[in-house]
Amino acid sequence: MATSSVQGELRIGWAQADITPPRPCLVAGQFHVRISEEVLDPVTATALALASGGEHAVLVSCDLVAIPDGLRDAVRARLGGGGDGPDPMKVVISATHTHTGPEVRGPGQSPGTLATAAGVELEAMGAAEYQPMVADRIADAVRRAWAARAASGLAFGMGWAVVGRNRRWVDVSGRARMYGRTDTPLFSHIEGYEDHSLGLAATVDTAGRLTGLVVNVPCSAQVSEHAFAVSADYWHETRQELRRRFGGDLFVLGQCSAAGDQSPHLIYDRRAAERMLDLKGRTARQDIARRIADAVEEVLPFIAATADRAPVLAHHAETIALPASALTQADADAAVAEAEKDRLRYEDEMRKLRADPSLKDRPRWYQAPSGFYRRMKWQQAVAERFQRQEEQASVPAELHVVRAGDLAVATNPFEYYLDFGTYIKARSPAVQTLLVQLAGAGSYCPSRRSLAGGGYGSLPASNPVGPEGGRQLAERTVEVLLRLWSQP
Prior knowledge:
single chain; 488 residues; alpha+beta; five-stranded mixed β-sheet; 23 strands
């Protein structure tokens, strides 16, 4: 897509849509299937439209685990082209990666992620039924945000809030793993870096009243990741706390920065952290919300007077072909062996169900068979990729870079390891750069050092795109940023 920079009156519009499923649904985020048994809090889609002259961008954040291509394309199809609406290709949809969001990934829409089939028959709303509904509601939010555009100002700043931590550790032999017990003599060190920065963009109307916040943190929404429930995770409490402090009608758009190896979970000092939560009388989600809101409250007074009402606005979008991870025969053979183990376990579970159908009367009876089935499919996909890697040597990745004055927003479709995010921020010519991962279907994109240690997130089954592709995407992002900042 050709890129042009314009400078003129900035017009901003906001909208929010409720995307909570109307009945029990499949919940995304684990190997085993979960069916929602309650709605802890609503899941939402929040849209922010930025326009100046003939240039524009619409940023949408959803309380979902990922944005598969099928959902992205369905939203854009509903928006159409021409007329008074935004260019569908300039609508960028990202996920907060909540592990208690409705399953939205259909078969084949998220390569390298967990298979979405269950292996058992279930009565629940699945991706095929949910995806059209959520596409309608996201498209409606985009239209309403576009229609609500009015003269506004945009301010930005950076604060600090401890939300995400590196979730991978290395033992004395050099083997890495995600999570697991670290109270062992085998423990050596935490694998990589952590980023506790909080990126903030604030919109104000012509009277200087705060209308909305973009809050960018390098952490997925996984505090409640094992719940059999629908929830926005810590973003729900964060929105509540920000609205309590700054106004009940405030729009809050949450973004997950590069954080493929980060999560809100501690892998050491857990007992001390749990004790402090008890002493404070807070949940982990409430504590994160307080930290985020405290950082926002500290930053806002210093940036309030800097709101730019006529910033340079540019939006670059392209789809690039990244090299697929190279697989060996040994990778394929190891995956087939693991898949066979899970096949036997799955078939054993199914034999038990056929022999005693009353087992299905037990709560969550489907966990074990669905978990083995999905692991089997996950490993089988490695062998399938190995067979076709000569014909499919690349993986498409959509990239967006938006310039709004001295602020940059750059997206990627992956669970993008922090090393890549650090590289982009270090090289960016912008005063401040907001990275947004999972503006796409997902799958881990691991750093070179993490691949050496292996472990979940850095295995052949996890990585259709590896460190080479991740670096290529980072370098291309920097090239676009440098070009946008070099234009007069």
